[in-house]
């Protein structure tokens, strides 16, 4: 299925564009690098004084370079490639996913406007919408359960300028129907933004489903190796793109650095290979967890038991590599389980080749008040995993180790006593 993806930019297939698009060998410098060099120069020589060419005429998309904040060849190669993979006409690469989100939202709203957002957004985006847009910039924000499009429609007002969605969400892997969201956005003349970080363009292309803009934290799957921070916005509307570009280059000056751009270009070459393996492994891990009697719930869109499994199959070409599950046990059991793991590293973030596990209640979602976490369903027994590309049998064996440690702790002592050895001498 994946090999039939084509994009607006080019009729070559996704896998081909991932490897080469945006950095075809350039012989003009007499070298002909097969990969894009890391262009570190902050400024570029110009041909002479020209009173007829203004700064606004600079066209980075035509490879015109004056000053690196405005346009940089390595960054531009990333922008071209991601635009091709998402099927958009324009892309802007930022210093982080967060800066891609803030610029994309800011370009869409003015003070007095209203935003409707999915209630379980990435924690940082949730806080940004509340503490920057709502509390400082006078933009009203309503958070709703967007699994039902009627909730989103009901929350819109005359002032609604933007719908902000993630699908699947973090950490519960809930989905919203992107086509239905686009219909609501059209009805109220608002824009629809979709954070596509969890799926990436290999599995889901929101622009094709009617979204106006897609953002990514390239820090996750796009770079894919947990060694670079970045973000990108992709869209086709020229005017909205100009607004976002203004914020990226001038309003905030928030651009992806050349070294990170190089890392992202390199990472993208294997995006289809990695995503396919992430999915294979995640499916195996999800099936194992679902069959385990000490797991009370598994949240993964690829499982038949996922309440939106059909929607997942309709709007995505796969189910990704992130899942979350509920251990049948308290916080002590969770601690023992996690401490015994050797392959899954306890760390926030996701989308890298290595498997990670995290505890949303104390890590990614700890800024949310406890009652808000409870409302969303983020319990103290919930764990989120980003399944890497290791051998799936090793990952399952590791989880088995976790369960054994969890059960052993229950059998030998009370929870309090089981925790005591952690404080023994020499074990700090
Ligand atoms: C990580 C993440 C972000 C923020 O990206 P940074 O690169 O950390 O700034 C935004 N949205 C989602 C869904 C993420 O996972």
Automatic annotation (TrEMBL):
Cofactor(s) for this protein? Answer: pyridoxal 5'-phosphate
What superkingdom heads the lineage?
Archaea
Which PROSITE patterns does the UniProt entry name for this protein? CYS_MET_METAB_PP
One example of the protein's molecular function in GO is:
lyase activity
Annotated signal sequence range: none
Entry-linked Gene3D superfamilies: Aspartate Aminotransferase, domain 1 (3.90.1150.10), Type I PLP-dependent aspartate aminotransferase-like (Major domain) (3.40.640.10)
Q: Which Pfam families match?
A: Cys_Met_Meta_PP
List the residue ranges of the region (Disordered): 409-428
Question: What UniProt keywords are attached to this protein's entry?
Answer: Lyase, Pyridoxal phosphate
Q: Where is the composition biased (Acidic residues)?
A: 416-428
Q: Which InterPro entries match?
A: Cys/Met-Metab_PyrdxlP-dep_enz, Cys_met_metab_PP, PyrdxlP-dep_Trfase, PyrdxlP-dep_Trfase_major, PyrdxlP-dep_Trfase_small
State the PANTHER family in the record: CYSTATHIONINE GAMMA-LYASE (PTHR11808:SF15), TRANS-SULFURATION ENZYME FAMILY MEMBER (PTHR11808)
**Family named by the database record:** Belongs to the trans-sulfuration enzymes family.
Quote the protein name from its UniProt record. Trans-sulfuration enzyme family protein
